[in-house]
């Protein structure tokens, strides 16, 4: 785990955002790394490892207890229990947590939009919140509102913090449709995601801060 603080120049929102992702059942290891002055804490999916109800209840209780006036959560491809298509979804207690999958929320004048869908073209079956081709992606990401300032997805856009090395091969796992939509979001300041563990890090591109916090924790001030 590592912690990085970056300042994003822009309007005076005065928000401190902490981003974590892909904790895979190890959320308790992050407790002492979360800044106590966090305003919004965002988890961008894959909080489960074994998809047991007890594991989910432990995570939700922990997420509610850590610092942050607002808690935002999206699902990832491992989070079957949170997928609305799963018959256990209705049993999940999300009290005190903003669970976003294709919704916006405004906090202190800043518009957040989250969607759990992730491109899984090499794994057509057995993944939660997944789609298999770019055409589907175009439909999904066209729904991002134009006024979005903080975008939360599980997977990365193509060619941005999405590279994996496997033996002698290099792959890019990001979504081209998502990247194309992001290029049209003129108010976007921050894109938070995870999914590709090898590509964890931060990158500033054309005034937008991109954050892949897979198995890590990053903080931003806006």
Describe the 3D structure.
It contains 3 helices and 16 strands. By secondary structure, the chain is α/β, with parallel strands linked by helices. The strands form 4 sheets. The protein has a 6-stranded mixed beta sheet with strand order 1-16-2-3-4-5, with no helix packed on it. Strands 6-7-10-13-15-14 form a 6-stranded mixed beta sheet, with no helix packed on it. A two-stranded parallel sheet has the order 8-9. Helices cover 13% and strands 29% of the residues. The chain starts with a strand and ends with a strand. Helix 2 packs parallel to helix 3. The radius of gyration is 16 Å and the shape is globular. Strand 11 and strand 12 (169-172) form a beta hairpin. The protein has a single domain (5-221), classed as Purple Acid Phosphatase, chain A, domain 2. Residues 1-12 have low confidence and may be disordered.
Work out the strand percent. 25-35%
Identify the overall geometry: globular
Helix proportion: 10-25%
The radius of gyration is 16 Å
Mean pLDDT: 90
Q: How far do the termini sit from each other?
A: 22 Å
Oligomer category: single chain
SS class: alpha/beta
Counted by DSSP, the helix tally is 3
Low-confidence stretches: 1-12
Q: What fold name goes in the CATH topology slot?
A: Purple Acid Phosphatase, chain A, domain 2
